[in-house]
Amino acid sequence: MPPIQKAAVLGAGVMGSAIAAHLANAGIPTLLLDIVPRELSPDEVKKGLDLSHPVVRNRFAVQGIQTALKASPAAFGHKDRARLVTPGNFEDDLPRLAEVDWVVEAVVERLDIKLSLFGRVAPHLKGSALLTTNTSGLSVNAMAEGLPEELRPRFFGTHFFNPPRYMHLLELIPAGTTDAARLTEFSGFAQQRLGKGVVFAKDTINFIANRIGVFSMLHTARAMTTHQLSVEAVDALTGPALARPKSATFRTADLVGLDVLAHVAGNQYELAPDDERRETFRLPPFLQKMIDNGQLGQKAGGGFYKRAKQDGQKVTLALDPVSGEYRAKGKVEFPVLAELKTVEDPGKRVATLLRDKGVAGKFAWDVLAETLLYAARRIPAVSADVVSIDRALRWGFGWEIGPFELWDAIGVQQSVARMLEEGRDVPEAVGALAGSDHPSFYLRDGLHTRVWDLPSQTHVDLEPRPGVTVLSDLKSAGRTLLKNPEASLIDLGDGVACLEFHSKMNAIGGGIIQMIHQSLAEAGSSFDALVVGNQGENFSVGANLMLVLFEALEGNYPELSTMVRAFQNGTMALKYAPVPVVAAPFGRVLGGGAEVCLHAHRVQASLESYIGLVEVGVGLVPAGGGTKELLLRAMANHPGSGADPLPLVRRAFESIGMAKVGMSAYEAFDLGFLRPGDAVTLNREHLIHDAKRSALAMLEAGWQPLQRPARVQVMGRDGLANIRSMLHNMRSGGFISEHDALVGEKVGWILCGAEVDNGTEVSEDYLLDLERRAFVELLAQRKTLERIQHILKTGKPLRN
Fold it and tell me: Are the C-beta atoms of residues 586 and 535 closer than 8 Å to each other?
């Protein structure tokens, strides 16, 4: 298959424009086409335009791009990526399809409309171009039958999940005429370039994820009535307690839209009459009533929940499905939920919930048992194997572990015995597994995994996925070189090691700092390059604030200074390491986590890296070398020859003083957290692999250790006077508090090198001393301690 260098999206609705935005995130120039308007808008009339004007004819595509730019969460990884999307229309621009390598259709879900459009598109496609449909449930084979014969091998389904930038799942659905080699090649492209988790689905109604996920949601809605639970109680039991996302069942329905949920369910009910659980897809009366009343969820101002004002305060109301009225959201107090908060492993968490003898455990078992059985019965008609179903539910519905992984966690033998005792219909192949010598769907032995194949009733080898490195598998295979409770050093192979954080929330404490030094002591003997990365929920949320608060409340300022110095020594050890160090951040990369990355020689960042020095939010300054590094990076761009460095210093000041966080890796370049030479990975599962490749490339290119110390000219009193003036104006205007101004002045004091002459050259160690001093002095402020206590209690910053 020729490389996909240009693409086109047909249909500029919410989904089509979001797909185009994500293709732009992947660096693919994309043509976005839609219909030509039949009449002028009031604004077009005012401008004196007519229906022949290009602005009018491309209006829907332009609006699609604007919708994507305004979307929340953002569809584009950076606003500049929108330049890669070119608007057009179906009347004027179909000939331009001859330039593209892939056309993805995302128009309204009607087979006749799709086939009519394909008929118009087909004559313009070059002989190697792919044509795919983003249908969420219509028959791919029925569409293929309406295509010219020579195009059929290049046609298949590409079902993106919304929003495409964030949802990992891409279901590929071949037609009977699809060329298998082209499908396989596209799968590799989708994983590596688009960052997708690819699952192959059969051409059945709603494919895999929606078929099983919506079944589980609708069965949950019915079980709520059976077990006489409230909406909020169900959500408390079907979120993380059941290894599912925090939005659980009904918050998810509100986010997706009840009309969308009803559309998927209606299709399933009407088009799959042989489904043994067909009646589950008939909407419960209370749900149908909500739709009739326009209670469609968040987009309609209310669904199962809505926000309202009571006594001048915003409150969340929950729907009573019996009365149909909203009431104050109740507090859910199942004793087992408190126990589950301390269980990190999702499988153990669910097993603990199921052991509950009360209504919570009984309800959870009802939901889970029926979901597991329904999923098992979808093989082989909907999915060829259990792995595809597990991945589809994890990647498309945000489950922490898939149905069959969860079945292993709760025990296949025990659960099947309970199902049979309760008279549930257990598929023969599942019963055979329960009665076998190895009653688990997955058998893992280090890096080798075998999985239960239901059709053959045997365990078969699970093929490894190219580019995917799983650190837990490496540890199971005995590849751990060093370990303490907060961090490990893992052998990635080829002379590269990985420094993995695994403290709570990957907060940086003494164990991580100790492992940095221990790891680098092994450099050159045990490994030749180092990746700093992990596969937790976030790369690192920063320093261990609880420990900092404890010492501050005790007045242990010398100990706090020692702690800060230890972290500074750790980050500086990374910067001046004898081997190349590549950081692999993802998710939240805050405070100390960002400082670790700032000291790496190169960063291989996930697109979804939210990097920021946010210490001012708790009344502190970045003191692990972060302030120092942003100054060094800013001044590296100073042209010299008498040019004023103040704009560069102010840029660093604003990044720190306003606690700016890049909402993608692309935005992190703008803020100075990433720099030329750093790179972005769209597929988080490939991140460790890509970081390792980057480290090996550095070695191949003859990388040499940095020579210390770095020195930099500072603005001293002159720069500090400017920053003080800016802070004074902001304080006078009521934009910042008195304490904000104090913290801001400390940031400026460090960036300007304190009270020295303009142009004074200072060392890194000098700036680190300023960081450390400012950090400890701020901890002596009562308002700083109040901010730390507030964020530890609520997770939200306090302005005081």
Answer: no
CA atoms within 13 A on the CB side of 648: 20
Alpha-carbon span 647 to 397, nearest angstrom: 45
Dihedral Cα 517, 523, 528, 531, nearest 10 deg: -10
User: In angstroms, what CA-CA distances link 600 with 365, 497, 577, 670, 706?
Assistant: 47, 14, 9, 18, 11
Model pLDDT for residues 310-350, shown as the tens digit of each residue: 877 888 999 999 899 999 998 998 999 999 999 999 999 99
Go through 459-497 and write b for each residue having 16 or more CB atoms within 10 A of its CB, e for each that does not. beebeeeebebebebbbeeebeebbeebbbbbbbeeebb
Give dist(CA 387, CA 312) in Å, integer: 51
pLDDT at 710: 81
Instruction: State how far the alpha carbon of 20 is from the alpha carbons of 27, 126, 129, 135, 165, in Å.
Output: 11, 20, 17, 15, 10
Q: What is the pLDDT of residue 687?
A: 98
Cβ contact 546:598 at 8 Å: no
Give the CA dihedral 294, 295, 301, 307, nearest 10 degrees. Answer: 150
Closest of 709, 685, 726, 701 to residue 198, by C-alpha: 685
Q: How far is CA 89 from the centre of its chain?
A: 33
Dig out the tokens for 11 from the structure: 């249909």
542's tokens: 């920063």
* Ordered strands of the 197-200 beta sheet: 85-89, 30-34, 7-10, 102-105, 130-133, 155-160, 169-174, 197-200
Q: What angle do CA 664, 670, 673 make, to 5 degrees?
A: 75
Token digits for 65? 């791009």
Give the model confidence (pLDDT) of 630-675 as tens digits: 999 999 988 877 789 999 999 999 999 999 999 999 999 999 999 9
pLDDT over 70 percentage in the chain: 100
> 686, 468 in Cβ contact below 8 A?
yes
Q: CA 752 to CA 657: how far, in whole Å? A: 14
| Whether the predicted pLDDT of 287 surpasses 80 | yes
- The full 3-state SS of 317-339, as one line of letters, equals EEECCCCCCEEECCCCCCHHHHH
Instruction: State the Cα–Cα distance between residues 488 and 381, nearest whole angstrom.
Output: 43
Cα–Cα distance, 326 to 324 (Å, whole number)? 7
Enter the pTM of the model: 0.95
3-state secondary structure of 516: helix
What pLDDT is stored for residue 524 in this prediction? 87
**ω into 29 cis (within 30 of 0):** no
Distance CA 773, CA 775 (A): 5
Q: What is the pLDDT of residue 642?
A: 79
According to DSSP H, which parts of 342-445 are helical?
346-354, 359-377, 386-397, 403-410, 412-421, 428-434
Give me the amino acid identity at 267: N
Q: Which residue's structure tokens are 């809505």? A: 306
Mean pLDDT of 269-293: 94
C-beta separation of 379 from 386 below 8 A: yes
Contact 67, 20 (CB under 8 A): no
Across 427-455, average pLDDT: 96
- The token duo for 220 is 């949950």
| Helices and strands in the chain, H and E counts | 32, 25
Do residues 51 and 59 touch, judged by C-beta distance below 8 A?
Answer: no
Across the strands, what pairs with 458?
Answer: 453
